[in-house]
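Example record used in the benchmark description.
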Amino acid sequence: RRSRAMMQSLLSPSMLRSGAALCRGAHGLRYRSGVLAHRKDGVLSARVRPATTAAASAASSSSTEVEPKTTAAAAAELTDAAGKDVSGAGIRRRFLEFYEARGHAKLPSSSLVPEDPTVLLTIAGMLQFKPIFLGQEERKVPRATTTQKCVRTNDIENVGVTARHHTFFEMLGNFSFGDYFKKEAIVWAWELATVEYGLDKTRVWVSVFREDDEAYAIWRDVVGVPEERIKRMDEADNFWAAGPTGPCGPCSELYWDFHPERGTDGASLEDDSRFIEFYNLVFMEMMRDKEGALTPLVRKNIDTGLGLERMAQILQGKPNNYETDLIRPIIDKAAEMAGVSYDAADEATKLKFKVIGDHTRAVAYLIADGVLPSNVGRGYIVRRLLRRVVRCGRLLGVKPPAGSEAFTPAIAEVAVGLSGQCDPNVAAAAERIYRELEREELRFAVTLGKGEEILAAMIVAAKEAVSVGGAERPKLSGSDAFTLYDTYGFPLDITTDVATEAGVDVDVGGFEVAMETARTLARDARKTVDVTAGDLLARVAEELGAPTRFTGYGSLVEEGVTVRAVLRGGARVDEACEGEEVEVVLDATP
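Model output (structure tokens):
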């Protein structure tokens, strides 16, 4: 009974009807003329519905209506003991003003669609400055500060599970292009954290690269951090490299201590239950050649990143990033539409709301930058994220507004309303965002129906295999369960429940193996921002002409492929010997 109820929440008749209406092209017109026009609460003229507070969300399940506060009003309440603004917008503004007062030019965020052909999405604040760091372009300013919108999907399964993982996030940064260097970067980072933001100095720890005695001395002797709160760490944590060759250098990171009562003896900065890294300083001071030799850079650079969501968690005293004012209003809107209280919900329910809050932000910004849902590249990321939102919303019982069959546009209105100071283009693209969300949500209804048919066929096949082979209980393979999850959006628990009712087991272990394989591939593909690879690959692409054909959506195996180029040590070569590490460019790849 439970599995049928869960399936009905995913495959409601209204969704299936709306899918048919979408195919006829009627529903979209009905939504655009109705979902906002039907409202009587004054929202129409603003086009962006005000975010609800936690109190409004909690009251939404009762008969008493609570007037939601606007995001501006809610932000006004977020001040520290000194009366300083600790809202997400305030933290962003204060960071930029701090560095503008120190001679930095405030530059706009670059698009989530980078010009760099080696990177699918903008994943770091330094990406727009890559040509300057490589010496390919002259600096336009000696020092700069930005708030950069970023999207990373290599840890998508951790969204909502941990306190800090996101797909979309803002990276606040200050950069020096051959101007100031290590001492100024360290002193200013400390001043920003402990004076401007008012963090307790005794709860801020720092890390340095194990061989960076200069940074260690600055933290100890100039800033005054006690040695017991300065940790030397290895390359994996505290040495940044652009790639196999190119600029590189040691890092220094600032951490906040949530549990100072545990003392300093035996403390490890890798203990996520106690520490959170919030500011990373990269000292770009060396150049690595293809033999691995390091030589000092003539013009040393500074590249830093402070996570806005993490600082908001610290300054607002929240247990996780999702409950800050950067994301919580989106969550509260979804909870209101589901008729439940987020604060009173169990952890499994809260996790789904966190996924909705995080992914809705990511999708809104991506669509605003021109990335539309598809089965290829960036478009596949939008489609995957949005379908996770739909799946979680249906399981939570999120209801569409009156006059609409889709609920995602109404939730996205809150995300758009919060976007102004990060990227004004999001609000300008609001109608396109809502239109694409509606279309994709309704299209997913049809996909879910197809997935249900495929699951039924898999169950029949599993039973037939047993009837032919013997008395063994029928079992659905882990790879089949993963296909249902990854391609059709079926959560494992629903697949398991439906299969169990039909007398079929599911290879959960095999599913986890397939899942971990997918995660590993994603992590390996996004380990670093290789600022040296772009020019070589661009030259190779120009020389080869026709692009590599991607065949992975139809098959996981491709036979008879042709090696079109071999790359080694940052250069194109004609051959490679056994044992050498090379990159190959093929004519087709799954």
